[in-house]
Write a structure and sequence with these properties.
4 copies of one chain form a homotetramer.
Chain A (H helix, E strand, L loop, with lengths): L1 H16 L11 H24 L6 H8 L3 H7 L3 H25 L4 H18 L1 H11 L10 H25 L9 H21 L11 H8 L6
Chain C binds a DNA duplex (21 and 21 nucleotides) through helix 3 and helix 4.
Amino acid sequence: MNKMNRENRRRYLSKEARGPGMEIKKLSRRERDKLRQRQEMLDAALDLFSEKGYHNVSMHEIAGKAEFAIGTLYKFFKNKEDLYKALMLGLCEKFQSELTGAINEKQDEVEKLRSYIRAKGEVFRANISVIRLYFSEAHASSFNVVSGLDFEIQKSRREFFESMAKVFASGVEKKIFNNIADPFLLAIALDSLSNAFLDLWVEAPDKYPYPEDPDTILNILFKGLLVK
Amino acid sequence: MNKMNRENRRRYLSKEARGPGMEIKKLSRRERDKLRQRQEMLDAALDLFSEKGYHNVSMHEIAGKAEFAIGTLYKFFKNKEDLYKALMLGLCEKFQSELTGAINEKQDEVEKLRSYIRAKGEVFRANISVIRLYFSEAHASSFNVVSGLDFEIQKSRREFFESMAKVFASGVEKKIFNNIADPFLLAIALDSLSNAFLDLWVEAPDKYPYPEDPDTILNILFKGLLVK
Amino acid sequence: MNKMNRENRRRYLSKEARGPGMEIKKLSRRERDKLRQRQEMLDAALDLFSEKGYHNVSMHEIAGKAEFAIGTLYKFFKNKEDLYKALMLGLCEKFQSELTGAINEKQDEVEKLRSYIRAKGEVFRANISVIRLYFSEAHASSFNVVSGLDFEIQKSRREFFESMAKVFASGVEKKIFNNIADPFLLAIALDSLSNAFLDLWVEAPDKYPYPEDPDTILNILFKGLLVK
Amino acid sequence: MNKMNRENRRRYLSKEARGPGMEIKKLSRRERDKLRQRQEMLDAALDLFSEKGYHNVSMHEIAGKAEFAIGTLYKFFKNKEDLYKALMLGLCEKFQSELTGAINEKQDEVEKLRSYIRAKGEVFRANISVIRLYFSEAHASSFNVVSGLDFEIQKSRREFFESMAKVFASGVEKKIFNNIADPFLLAIALDSLSNAFLDLWVEAPDKYPYPEDPDTILNILFKGLLVK
DNA sequence: GATGAATGAGTTTTCATTCAT
DNA sequence: GATGAATGAAAACTCATTCAT
């Protein structure tokens, strides 16, 4: 069952990741249909979970919204938890890869950070409801709704932090940055700082818009607070 | 939830109930009893929710643990959601007031920040499971398990940030701090930074212990990252 | 849960076993009500199971027939299997005790056997549908619908065979019976022989009525088939 | 269900299908294929039902094990009950015919009975799990899981009893047996007696092995229990 | 006022069966 | 004729909530 799931996931994600090449032709119509159906189910589930939270959405509701019979839903996901995990994992990997892309598309270290902050804002803006869901039910888990979800997600998060830590390390090496803290901690710090701004924005979009200029956030790290 | 915790909680809440001055005398025995009963119910609920999460605890379980009849529980809280809200609100106010206390007990601005960081570590250490519960089910809510919870909690959170913003503002005025960002944003930044360290600690207490020395965190703000 | 069940069962069975003494007064009205309700549920279940078989009866159906809410049914029996076990165990013990009584009420060994055969006919006549249920779903189990049911039932059956074996042994000792086989096997033999007649009767009551005269059955054992 | 069993079954059933004489040639390849497929389905069903019981096996499982599509299964058997009936009927006829064979292969009446008892032990030993299935779900039915199963099975059983009754009648005629009871009842009696021994063996194979020597069972009928 | 028995709507999940390809 | 994806009715069981005692 586990194996099956992993394969489903891989197939799904490879499609996700796949560029617009000609590889799409390799999937038979049957397979493409399945993939589309699966995605329709995930989309329906996402809408409902986002709106009402995991425990307040029934499988019947999801099936109904996706316009499939309940049995069909269970053909694709062995149970509610499995569906939730697939949903979250897919989304996290998508977001992570967008942010990683934002870092990689620039050469200069400072530009990488700016690009990251901008991309993060965009990802949030485009996916608020999902992110709310993530924060409300998946984060800080272990004992959570869906235990086990975290392991894979944390891993991918850790990987992301590592790649951002490399940006800081390289900046320090090039003497662009002062060596004020462990690069990994700096990565965490920048992440949390941008989260804080996003949090404000989520709660009061008008009063606290996410800054257009990434330096609004970066300066908190860049300029020393303490007068020497 | 260990014994110490329960006592802390009780101590706090009796203060809560007491209100300012000697008004305690104004409560009749009847009223005091009710208050005690209510607290016993909340304590039981906290233990269970922390352990298993909101949706995996039944009202019967709570009533059982608190040693009251289910009907009595419903006399005090009109439904499960109401009970959950009351619980969370109480806890948040307690935490907020401990952190406010930590700030107020020092004169010097830098010391206030250090004291805050230390206190936050202690609050977390002493209340992990509650905090996990908060993050997993209450945070980023409004659309959440328990809609409406947020309003009061956000208000008290906002108040706290305001008082921390004053610390930064006053530090700037005294030329202790450079004016690198809006004081409110600095408050948010420090909060999020310490949260990030606590997050690391929660996920891997051994690998990422919460720093003994508050300056480990503060230096990320204090020292400028960017080489001038 | 197990403990609770056992207590329920004991309470139930002691009532079952209890003679018409004054002990009944010891039960509060509350307790008597519970017992009556429980019995109403078991009665409804018995009717339905007998008619349609274990797997073709739903808990809702049982609750409906007994005129209780489904939740109430689950207050009394933790699940469908538990209900079935309680039902079967109660019936088996009741039957066993009737047969044991039939044996004990006579002094003479041959009379004991006759009394047993008569009593068995009566028990069957009065409880066909139950017995059909027993044969169809509980017997020859181990891998059956309700594994574990057997242990207690087999035990009580074994005990019954032992007491019948004693009748044969005592008959042999008194030189009433020839020592043609192990008394336990003779008990088994008589049981199976009477079962065979009952089987015939069940399948074609008119063509093969269960014999009025117990000797019709007994003679198959009593008189030697083989010409010496 | 071991390999030997499957082969036995196949051998038997091909005979079944063949019918008497060389009619096998009359079946077209198409028809022979169908018959083989049908048998493969029944074999798979038998294995699964024996292992888990009627209600715990799904049609999909059966189709899967038989390596046919579910639709194909439904081409052969109009529903699950129909499949079950066909399976049981086939098995009963097989067993009945083996026992009839055992009787017919001897001349002497006493030897016929001995041969029957031995054969019955062998049939049981080789088919316990099926027999358990039969006892647990099919026996004493009509009102059972699968109503209607019984009619044909009872008919074949009746036929068998008739042929055994003839053995007793003929023995009486030859003055080998005393005329202690109706020959049909004697047939029933011997059947039930051997069942009882098999029952003991099924429940405790070590404690109550089915007797090597058929006379252990026969003597209960042969020798008179009652002292004259 | 306290109690806890009773309620029944609602949840997840399974599986026999159909029918378009 | 074979296939197996899709269906949806139905089952077991839970639990927030009510209300008669």
